[in-house]
Design a protein that fits this description.
The protein is of the alpha+beta class. Helices cover about 50% and strands about 10% of the residues. It has 18 helices and 12 strands. The chain has a 7-stranded mixed beta sheet, with helices on both faces. The longest helix has about 30 residues.
Length: about 425
């Protein structure tokens, strides 16, 4: 049985590895919203929320956070000690601002976010446009009438090359960055395996060693890149330690492309599944317009790449008659909240001009995604350029989603240019 709901106990059994679920989780989310919007997820031991109101409010509620060990030790919380074999990964993770609460989070975010201000990101528009055209040129030159993988040859290179260039990592390192990133983010998956853990640990070591050597080089020979700026940046006399700098560069590289790749991939498939919307964006063409901005938000909402985001309970509280103690972990299902019919009219339809569109794909509160302006710009530029340059492109094989959760993305997207040779 894929999903079982016990209304009396508010418990749910849900098999995330069932292909019917990970290929299309939305019917199951809808059933949960209708019957049990707050439930105890048996397989993962988590109280879980799927309605937009709860997810949105908890993301902004300071009684919930991404860190717990600043309040109580793992021993006090009854949590197992981190295994020694996983220490290299968690040594990186514990310095990442994504997993910290104030005041540490406030300090780190304040130091890092200067490179991600909207005006700084907007300066990348020309570079992103050029990169999109270069990739399409390569697709046309290499593919001719044969098929190509949209995800591998277009959606993936754009965000990873852009974030690498921002940081000052050579483009020749992109294959290694992708390997390290893919391995490391699997540590955040539900039901990870020992093999996944071993790969993540090894990639953590390699990633740290590479960046440490790059940081040492930039100390001697600063350049006009984000790593050099982070070495020098100061705020109220504060400075990033080298471990903090490296951990947050890894965060920016991993988060800076993983989600955007899948927004582009999932979004392209969604457009082809909604031909009228595809034609609408083709007709609008590239440009920084109210329509293109709304279209980006709808792609982010419709098939978001991150379906689950967890929070720790930081003080005793009660929600929906359920009492929560410090140290409990809860799950927020962003993918479900973005399809909540109480908030979004016809939530299972792609409507590029949807307004308002209060999706939660970038999270909320103090942990709202730092890279949101960059992701929005990359999507706004790359989709219409692709549609304009390859007006006859077609999806050739039914795309299949990867067996991952809480990340949600397609394994590949086989397309043709649609041009006869």
């Amino acid at each position: 049985m894929l999903m079982q709901i016990n209304h009396k106990t508010q418990t749910v059994s849900l098999n995330i590895r069932n292909k019917d679920f990970y290929n299309n989780p939305y019917p199951y989310y809808e059933k949960l919203q209708q019957q049990c919007p707050m439930f105890y997820w048996q397989e993962h031991g988590l109280w879980t929320f799927v309605d937009h109101q709860s997810v949105s409010s908890i993301l902004r509620d300071r009684r919930f956070g991404r860190q717990i060990e600043h309040l109580k030790s793992r021993e006090e919380l009854g949590l197992p000690a981190i295994p020694s074999n996983l220490k290299p990964f968690f040594d990186v993770d514990r310095h990442s601002m994504l997993g910290l609460e104030p005041p540490s989070h406030t300090r780190l975010r304040g130091l890092v976010q200067k490179g991600f201000m909207a005006r700084e990101i907007e300066r990348l528009r020309g570079r992103i446009e050029t990169l999109c055209h270069q990739l399409i040129d390569k697709i046309e030159d290499n593919c001719g009438t044969s098929n190509f993988d949209f995800k591998e040859q277009y959606a993936t290179p754009i965000p990873v090359i852009v974030i690498a260039e921002m940081l000052g990592v050579p483009e020749t390192m992109v294959p290694e960055l992708l390997r390290w990133s893919h391995n490391m983010i699997k540590m955040y998956e539900m039901q990870r395996t020992p093999e996944m853990e071993a790969a993540a640990v090894e990639s953590s070591r390699e990633f740290v060693n590479y960046l440490r050597s790059l940081v040492h080089d930039r100390r001697k020979r600063p350049q006009q890149d984000l790593i050099s700026k982070l070495i020098e940046v100061e705020s109220a006399g504060d400075r990033l330690s080298e471990d903090e700098l490296i951990a947050n560069c890894i965060l920016l590289l991993n988060a800076g492309h993983e989600a955007t790749v899948n927004v582009l991939g999932n979004g392209m498939v969604a457009l082809f599944n909604h031909p009228q919307q595809l034609t609408l964006w083709r007709n609008h063409g590239p440009g920084d317009t109210p329509f293109s901005k709304a279209a980006v938000e709808e792609l982010l909402r419709f098939d978001t790449p991150l379906h689950q985001f967890n929070r720790w309970v930081l003080e005793p509280l009660e929600i929906g008659g359920q009492h929560f103690e410090i140290g409990q972990e809860i799950a927020l299902i962003l993918g479900a909240a973005n399809r909540d019919p109480a908030i979004f009219q016809n939530p299972h339809l792609l409507q590029l001009d949807r307004h308002p569109n209060p999706h939660v794909s970038f999270g909320g509160g103090i942990h709202y995604c730092l890279g949101a302006p960059l992701a929005r710009l990359e999507i706004q530029i790359s989709i219409p350029i692709f549609l304009q340059r390859l007006p006859n492109a077609q999806i050739k094989e039914h795309p299949v989603y990867a067996n991952t959760y809480h990340f949600h993305g397609l394994e590949s997207i086989t397309m043709s240019t649609g041009v006869a040779g």
